[in-house]
Amino acid sequence: MARADDDKAAAPAAPATTTTTTTSASSATPATSEEGIMAIPGAKDTIDALTFEQILEMDDDEDERDFSKSIVYDFFSQADSTFGKMETSLESKDLKTLSELGHFLKGSSATLGLTKVKDSCEKIQHFGEKKDETGTRDITEEEGLEKLKTTIDQAKKEFEEVEKVLKKFYEGEGA
Amino acid sequence: MDSGQQGSNSSSDFVRKLYKMLETPSDESVVRWGNDGDSFVVLENEKFTKHILPKHFKHSNFASFVRQLNKYDFHKVRHNNEENGQSPYGPGAWEFKHPDFKMNNKDALDNIRRKAPAPRKTNTTAEEMIIPAQQMDMMSNQLVATQAQLHALESRYNELSIHHSMLLQEVIGLQKTVVNHEHVMQNVMTFLHNIDAQRRRDSRMGNPFSQNGVQAQNGAVEIQSQAQEDDIPASPLQHAAKLLSETNADVMLNPRNLEHMNEMSIRMNGTLTTPPPDFIRSARPASRGPPSAGSSVNSMRIGDLDNLVYPVGQTNGIDPTFSEHINNIPYSMPPKPAEPADTRFQEPRKKSAQVDPGWVRQPQILLVEDDPTCRRIGSKFLHAFHCTIDSALDGLEAVNRMQTGKKYDLILMDIIMPNLDGVSTTHLIRQFDSTPIIAMTSNIRSDDISMYFQHGMNDVLPKPFTKEGLLQMLEKHLAHLKKTSTHLQPDGLVAPQPLATARQILKEEDSPAKSPATTWGNSPNQITGVSPVANNVTDEYMHAVHANAANYAPPGQMPGNMYNASPQMAMQSAQARQHAGHRRQISDISGGDDMNNPAKRQQAMYGNGVMPPQPMNPMQRPR
């Protein structure tokens, strides 16, 4: 997977030649995104370049990246504590809280463009409401709890994955 | 040296001195008469300059001597056209000639005069030099005077604008007090209504409701008649409520006016462009006053300048020829004095109107968002658009902030937040304020959105928002703060009648079960499909209502439930509907005929948007 990503990243920002996910990103964002964070293996699937790029644009200093870095690192701790709370709520079978936590993390991950985490959080939100993952069909509480367990684990994994990418981006570039 | 003798009829000193010089035989080796006696020759330039010139002319400058000769129309004799091109007196000799300057002919010397044009020329240049100097003096005096004037004006203007802003602040403060009183009154009213309703309900329990239960279809009609019955005992209350809502409307008018005045003065200060297009906007139903207020400020100021500047200029003896200049100065100057006044005017708003989106002043934005990431990014974007941002961490904080009377140009509101959700928050704010509120949410299904609008929100910004999306929102809803006013009228479209909406909102709390038919058709305590509290027995419900009324808004519950506790209120809302009939009418009408459709739709909104985790009453479940 990493291989494929590298290939894509190396390709020029010609929308027509890239896949659907990259077209939207590369057509609207400058080539820097291809050289920057999107070149890091794993970034392609986990981060929406367009969204993340507009946050990077807000950095006053392109080398320090104080603003986006602090936001991203704050998000890390926010996510950590949210996953912790999810764990406790899962034990106490507090579906309502789980749904709220899912929504909460969904908002910030969406704002940062961390698409995978966002999608999982949305599922957590729905399962907490005792709905299926699209939020349309009802499911039982047991079903919900079961799905919540796996989805939270999945979200965590996805979070760690994107955390790695982001840290690489900031520490590799900043240091 | 010789300027004194220039005009004399007898031969000039210079010429006589010149003649005398040539009569000194001891100097013949240096300067002498020419061979023909009609010219004189300076043989040794150096010696002549050093020794002879000082003796006769009190200076030792050969160039001056030559210049002087030229003035008296002596000419240097050139020998170029002679055979050898050499002067007969030697290569370094200077020979000068004048037709009347001849050896042994002293009388002819009288004919030698300074050249006519030369003296005249010197005269005129002298005059020219003198007159401009006088003009310069006058001009600079005038300038100094004008500057002094301007300073006086400037300080006067600053003083006035400080006073003005002080007055404005005072008035705004007063208005806030009035608004607060208003809220207290409303709370009291709500409380009284509830008590009243409960009393009547208690005395009446069972009877009308069972009837309704049977005849759900005609529920609306039932309520009408029922409400009329109920209306009688509570008519003083009803009356009070009506009065209150009317005064409330007035209160809502005024701050708008002031705000506009504020904006006007800022605009006038910042850029002296008259902003007529914005007047048009201000002619919204909510504010008929501002145009006149604004223009009076405007004309007064110009009048001041006129009166002050002109007379002072004249008393300073300013040449009428320059009056145009003087007239112009004050008009081109005001931007300068205006600026300091401006900053004093609105301390927190640093005037950076020239920047990016081109605001007249920095828009004040309230960002209501519980998620720190979104809040920070949102703030950052807004900051990039040169807005001033306050943020509230949840709805409760937002309401509190608004209740302190702080004015914003726009509120960006997250929907799902702890303590008090965005819809409820909007709802509460709408009872005393009409600032545009934009929902910022990822819940953007059409039923969600229509619910946002129903509760007084003006627009929706889907999350995750983009910079462009945010900017578009700002430009759409803050068009009146744009320098070049691109004339949008967003409020007119979205919230056509702020007053009506506000009043209506008071009654619309029952919205989940919008149509009376459903409400009363089910059972008295299921007025609200939203809150599980409502699924209790009437008495309990009423208690909950009381509790709610006290703290304005229960967390996680539609606050409005309290309002429609009594059939009398239903009556009221029916009236309100007649007054401000829009949107609601449809649901009402259709609610009467076909209760399934709209009722379901509205309940669906609540099921999805506001209270997602709550298990729903099957009756109210659309799916």
TrEMBL record, chain A:
Domain (HPt): residue spans on this chain: 64-162
GO molecular function: histidine phosphotransfer kinase activity; protein histidine kinase binding
Region of interest (Disordered), residue spans: 1-40
Keyword annotations: Phosphoprotein
Keyword GTP-binding applies: no
Top-level lineage group: Eukaryota
GO BP annotation list: phosphorelay signal transduction system
Record InterPro entries: AHP1-5/YPD1, HPT_dom_sf, Sig_transdc_His_kin_Hpt_dom
Residues with Phosphohistidine modification: H103
Any Pfam family: Hpt
GO cellular component terms, A-Z: cytoplasm; nucleus
Positions with biased composition (Low complexity): 10-33
Name used for this protein in its record: HPt domain-containing protein
Naturally occurring in which organism (per UniProt): Periconia digitata
UniProtKB/TrEMBL annotation, chain B:
Gene Ontology molecular function: DNA-binding transcription factor activity; phosphorelay response regulator activity; sequence-specific DNA binding
Domain Response regulatory: from-to ranges: 364-478
InterPro entries: CheY-like_superfamily (IPR011006), HSF_DNA-bd (IPR000232), Sig_transdc_resp-reg_receiver (IPR001789), Sig_transdc_resp-reg_Skn7 (IPR014402), WH-like_DNA-bd_sf (IPR036388), WH_DNA-bd_sf (IPR036390)
Region (Disordered): 577-600
Record PTM 4-aspartylphosphate, positions in chain: D414
Protein's GO biological process: regulation of transcription by RNA polymerase II
Subunit details: Homotrimer.
Record protein name field: Transcription factor
